[in-house]
Amino acid sequence: MRVILLPDPQATEAFGALLAERVRPGDVITLQGTLGAGKTSVARGLLAALGLVGEAPSPSFAIVQPYEPPEVRFPVMHVDLYRIDDPAEIEELALDDARYDSLLLVEWPERAGPDYWPDALRLSLTIEPDGTRGLTIGVPEAWRSRWPT
């Protein structure tokens, strides 16, 4: 897998904006990385490109932050599983039902277990020694026709 270097928060948000050109309802994008790696910055860039005015809050305390038209082009559920201790708790969030008409952006997906969303576009962010962010992208079969090679 290739690592893309994102030099600053603006580049991280710009990558999120590029994702907006490829997403559709029913998709899942997982965002993995340590605290401060840029997960929420990617989500903010994507949400802004989908029409959200103003800065999207981190859903750390709410766990699920929904966005509905007309504030965005189509429904988006921004999910932060950081405070989930048991994968069984995720069932209570009804995310699988929301997937029918929404895009799911899921931070801390590892809290759900490794196989929870096998068809998700998997983004993994790291903080590099020089302070830039490293982005590794796992592209599942469901995304191959929409993803640049």
UniProtKB/TrEMBL annotation:
Pfam families: TsaE (PF02367). It comes from Sphingomonas aurantiaca. Keywords: ATP-binding, Cytoplasm, Magnesium, Metal-binding, Nucleotide-binding, tRNA processing. It is found in: Cytoplasm. It comes from the Bacteria. Belongs to the TsaE family. Its main location: cytoplasm. One of its GO terms (cellular component) is cytoplasm. The keyword Transmembrane helix does not apply. One of its GO terms (biological process) is tRNA threonylcarbamoyladenosine modification. GO terms for molecular function: ATP binding; metal ion binding. This is tRNA threonylcarbamoyladenosine biosynthesis protein TsaE.
